[in-house]
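ugh ok fine here u go
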Amino acid sequence: MKNVLIINGHQRYDEVAEGNLTKMYIDSASEFFQKNGFNVKHSVVESDYDIKEEVEKFVWADYIVLQYPVFWMGVPWITKKYIDEVFSAGDHNGLYINDGRTRSDASKRYGSGGLMQGTKYMISLTYNCPTSEFSDKDGFFDGLSLDEANVATHKTFQFCGAEPLETYAIHDIFKGDLDMDSELKRFRDTLERNFIAHI
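structure:
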């Protein structure tokens, strides 16, 4: 059986971001993984987590799903705090050994000291902005793709040696006309491609 860690990266703001959409996606992912025979553990960044236990979860996991709302073009600050605390504690504890460089071998590049080789991760995002703003030179992100606009999250995992799976994102979440049945089907289809087709 494969092990998957699902991280709830939501930060609550009353009446604006109460966490219901994030919870809906995490519940859907949990159901998917349990139905397909995965061992599942959960982490919640807005909680009194134990840093050492969180590092152990990362070491245990074959797969990681990080679900979060995009706040001001990045992860919520409490999610960044979680990343800083947990990943820093992973130094020589299963996540990375150093930044990869060594005086004895000049060919070793920065960012090559990760210990999470073989671990795969998926980021799943909730966005206010429409899909039209990505991969369009006239769009808000100046032609950047969805993944390029979220490079900091990807580079954090890459630094530790983990490999990306297909990213999922839901857009225009405040428009009021979302077809959540269709969106959740698209999410489950992404999970199927990422976690069943790869096994």
